[in-house]
Amino acid sequence: MTASPTTPVLLFSMDSDQFWAAPTTTGGLKAYYQKYGSQTEKYHIDLIHFKDESAIVRWQQSWQDHYLPAIQEATERGEQVIVGFSMYTWNAAEFLDLIHQIKAQCPDVLCIAGGPHVQQAEDYLGEDPIDIIILGEGETSFQEILDAPQRFHWPSINGIAYLENGVIQKTPERQRRKNLDELPSPLDVVALSDAEGKPLYDSISYETSRGCPFKCAFCEWGTGAIGSKMYQFSMDRVRSDWHRIVDAGIKDIWLADSNFGALKEDLEKAQLICELKEKTGLPSSFATSWSKKHSPRVQEIVLLLHKNGLLPHYQLALQTLTPLALELSNRQNMAANKYEPIARQMAAEGVPIAAELIWGLPGDNLADFERNLDQLLRTFPNLNIFAYTLLPGTEFYEKRLEYQIETIPVAGYGKAKGEYVVACHTFDRNEGIEGYFLITAHILFAHGHLIPLTIRFLALQNGITTAPLLRALLRAVCIEYQDELTELDLQDRMTVYEHRARIYTCILNDPKRLYSLIEKEVSDFLQASTNSHFIPDTRRILALDHALSPRCGSATEITYDFDFDALSSKAALDCLSLPCEEDLVPSTSQSLLIKSPGGVGSILKDPDGGAWLRGEVLHRQVDIQTVKILHPNVKPVQPS
Fold first, then answer.
1. Where do the Radical SAM core domain residues begin and end (predicted)?
2. Distance CA 561, CA 355 (A)
């Protein structure tokens, strides 16, 4: 007896840049349908997962031979072929192009879209050839659509939006699932290793809980599809999946939890991941979004992960310190705002702690943002600063008229990729774009690890504001390197922001030239701001930054000679303290062997990885600890 041909269902997903992970989102949809669907024998669900945009191009070239004939044959048999897209900001533009292509060649396919980026259904239905948008959690809605795909069934399916005679219809809200263990694991259907047992992916994004108790106006997490109430999978489920992940050789586990550490079971999860690391050597790293309440439990988890070499960073999601911006963002009462003792304690412990800051939030302004920047530079060893992209489904998106929010589309992608906020009722367009220029300068020079110690040294001084210096440095770079970057208009500040990665790799091709320019600009800035007495010491710290900066080429070990106590100065600055006078005495001489991994332009292609490929001083760890203990400016911080 010949088996009946199956109906194709194609589920598309794509990773963000530099994150090659298993398709757990679409895998979850497939696993759910295979467990609960009523027509599992009818459908062949194919997970099509793209690593990047070039993978889409390759797929488009091949689909004519493989998928298109199968779709056409099924359509001729009177079957409803379904294509589904998991939409996020990083893939929306590419997927909309793909949807247009598929619907142009196969107009009868049923196109479904879900995910955070399309929760504002009005922006897509009627504008793009999407038939159904899933609102909220998608597993059950997807299953019900496959079991009854005909249009007359749609009104009875909760949690979807569609067009009916040109008018958007939204069915009743789908209630969130409270017992998450009812959801089968995506790992039941997603292969993690090949036939030879080698891992197919570098990483995996994994959720142990759903929900976010906060309702930040710039974020869709707690106000949109995921909801405010937190629910979690059982430890048995987590333990089973994590064993499968490390057994497959997956290097990195990145949690999709919104507030890791907020739930008491999170400590047990951290203990489990450390046990796996000790027994198997995997995972190599473990990343998450941390709880906004930095409780003793959260700090215990952080120190445990750090001790076991599993903590790439510990980020405090401050986002803004400006009172009005905090109020409008619904964050004014967050415990995360009491950050200083936590930051100093973690820095003293050597934990890679960082603060997150956003430029462009309604309620902020450039003057306050600059003060916030200096305050955080004095408090945190690392800052991650982001431009505010207005996201569909958020409170600020709904109030864009009330707050006079002006945006421009993300260059090269259009509105589908997001909208940069460049003005609102508290700052004008020129101020907004100058803020983008400032954060570009910080990303290159501090976050990119070109002169982080110099910036911190100056920020710790009374009466020095670093923002004008950062902007002056970037303007000097734009002038100096315009001939090497002729394809870019470096007079346009948003172009500079958008192409910061290209600028970063270009200027590091010739470190001697770059640091000569930086030294001149820093000296001119200090001279003009009546701080010329800092010039000699600043040049010494700058020489240390030069020795430690990321490099092109292969790995090297080079001995650098300094005319001051560079090791003690670095230890003090690493602990967010100023070097003492004896550290910077020019009569002192010191030689340090510095190992640089190289890789700029090949491994490292943007400033976001600068801290990962910076140079390291080769000496015994006891030397560092001794300096920190004995240094007069390094004050021990008691745990809170």
1. 198-428
2. 33
Q: pTM for the whole thing?
A: 0.86
Verify cis geometry, omega within 30 degrees of 0, for the bond prior to 283: yes
Percent residues over pLDDT 90 in the chain: 70
Helix spans in 231-364 (H): 235-247, 265-280, 296-307, 323-328, 340-348
Give CA 278 to chain center in angstroms.
27
**Distance of alpha carbon 199 from alpha carbon 409, whole angstroms:** 38
Q: Report pLDDT digits (tens) over 186-222.
A: 999 999 999 999 999 999 999 999 998 888 999 877 6
Q: Are 595 and 578 in contact (CB under 8 A)?
A: no
Distances (CA, A) of 297 to 211, 286, 520, 542: 19, 17, 47, 39
Q: Which one-letter DSSP state was computed for residue 262? A: S
Residue 426: per-residue pLDDT: 98
Look-up: residue for tokens 């943007």?
606
Coil, strand, or helix at residue 621? helix
Contact indicator for 517, 508 with CB cutoff of 8 Å: no
The predicted model gives 160-182 an average pLDDT of: 95
What's phi and psi for 149, nearest 5 deg?
A: -80, -10
Collapsed DSSP state (helix, strand, coil) of residue 312: coil
Q: How confident is the model at residue 612 (pLDDT cuts 50, 70, 90)?
A: confident
10, 84 contact by CB (below 8 A): yes
Is 88 strand, coil or helix?
A: coil
Ramachandran angles phi, psi of 376, nearest 5° = -75, -30
Reported as type and span, the H/E element at residue 476 is helix 466-480
In this prediction, residues 58-69 reach a mean pLDDT of 89
In whole angstroms, give the CA distance from residue 468 to residue 504. 20
3-class secondary structure per residue, 347-366: HHCCCCEEEEEEECCCCCCH
Between CA 595 and CA 603 the distance in angstroms is: 16
Q: Quote the CA–CA distance of 44 and 568 in Å, as a whole number.
A: 64
For residue 264, what is the DSSP state? Answer: T
Euclidean distance between CA atoms 379 and 459, whole angstroms: 10
Residues in Cβ contact with 598 at an 8 Å cutoff, skipping those fewer than 6 apart: 551, 552, 553, 554, 555, 556, 613
Write the CA distances from 525 to 472, 473, 532, 539, 557, integer angstroms.
Answer: 8, 9, 9, 13, 33
Residue 64 three-state SS: coil
Pairing assessment for the beta strands 132-134 and 110-114 based on DSSP bridges: parallel
628 pLDDT band, cuts 50/70/90, is: low
Please report the pLDDT score of residue 625 as a whole number.
58
CB burial readout 281-305, b (16+ within 10 A) else e? ebbebbbbbbbbbbeebbbebbbbb
Side chain identity, residue 618: L
Decide which of 363 and 296 is more confident.
363
Cβ atoms of 6 and 78 closer than 8 Å: no
In whole angstroms, what is the distance from residue 358 CA to residue 319 CA?
5
Check: CB of residue 32 under 8 Å from CB of residue 140: yes
